[in-house]
Amino acid sequence: MSFGFLEMFILLFIVFLILGPKRIPGLLRALGRGVRDFTAEFSREKQEKELPGEKKREEP
Questions:
Q1: Does the residue 55 lie in any domain?
Q2: CA 26, CA 34: separation in Å to the nearest integer?
Q3: Is residue 59, in this structure, part of any structural domain at all?
Q4: Does 31 score more than 70 pLDDT?
Q5: How distant is the alpha carbon of residue 48 from its chain centre?
Q6: Which alpha helices (H) appear in the chain, and where do they start and end?
Q7: Which residues, by range, are in coiled-coil regions (predicted)?
Q8: Domain containing 9: what range?
Q9: Distance of alpha carbon 12 from alpha carbon 9, whole angstroms
Q10: Average pLDDT of every residue of the chain
Q11: Structural contact between residues 39 and 31, judged by C-beta atoms closer than 8 angstroms
Q12: Does residue 54 sit within a domain?
């Protein structure tokens, strides 16, 4: 089953009808903020993860 342009258009049209034009920008802003926070947390965990055989240096 493929999800084409027509199905995407119908889905967006239904969401627009349900939420209305005033709530959509806020919804997209919240979605963008959530994605940004998720990617920041994911990259932070990746940086904190130690590679095998390496030790963190302790500052005096």
A1: no
A2: 12
A3: no
A4: yes
A5: 21
A6: 5-19, 24-48
A7: none
A8: 5-49
A9: 5
A10: 81
A11: no
A12: no
pLDDT band for position 60 (50/70/90)?
low
> Does any domain span residue 41?
yes
Tokens representing residue 11 in the block: 């889905």
pLDDT at 7 over 80: yes
**Phi and psi torsions of 42, nearest 5°:** -65, -45
d(CA 35, CA 6): 26
Q: If you average pLDDT over residues 11-33, what whole number do you get?
A: 90
What is the number of structural domains in the chain?
1
Cα 15 from Cα 34, distance rounded (Å) = 19
What mean pLDDT do residues 44-52 have? Answer: 66
Q: What token pair was written down for 44?
A: 């932070």
